[in-house]
């Protein structure tokens, strides 16, 4: 059997499960954000900062994806959000059946906002529907300004772009205007946030936007 047929069958099966859990999320009024980035861009730190600012207003939980270890999940739990760890043991992305299984370990009643912290990878996660309402791609100034050009599918399938570590701009060779121009050329509807989890710059705008989309139930 051709490899392309096998891949199509796997993705089709994933779509079926994603539709099932999306119905569950909708029925239980849980808003789901799939957060994606390359390794080290700052997903976990962003979640820590977001939880600290929003946990008094929203019931927040996190499904934490990693190839190995529970280090990030421990950080999220310390920040105050209920967390379920998924270790893929080598797989470079999360799949819908993993999310379905993780949900059985959550007390869903108080959850209004569920973050899925995907595996650090700008390629594979863009192809896998996890039943989310919203996709956010996070990049950082420390990893170079060529990410939209190199990984266009990730930006094409996301609704928001976070450019993190802007506090490092004076010290790195990073053309912020070029990055935004490239990203918007791929997806002109991207909502773009420039922020620093270290200094707090831009976090207020991000958190206010998250509150707005959760309350509105916006689906792209």
From TrEMBL:
Residues 32-193 form the CobW/HypB/UreG nucleotide-binding domain. Gene3D superfamilies: P-loop containing nucleotide triphosphate hydrolases. Keywords: GTP-binding, Hydrolase, Metal-binding, Nickel, Nucleotide-binding, Zinc. The keyword Zinc applies. Pfam families: cobW. GO terms for biological process: protein maturation. One of its GO terms (molecular function) is GTPase activity. The keyword Nucleotide-binding applies. Belongs to the SIMIBI class G3E GTPase family. HypB/HupM subfamily. This is Hydrogenase accessory protein HypB. The lineage of its organism: Bacteria, Bacillati, Chloroflexota, Ktedonobacteria, Ktedonobacterales.
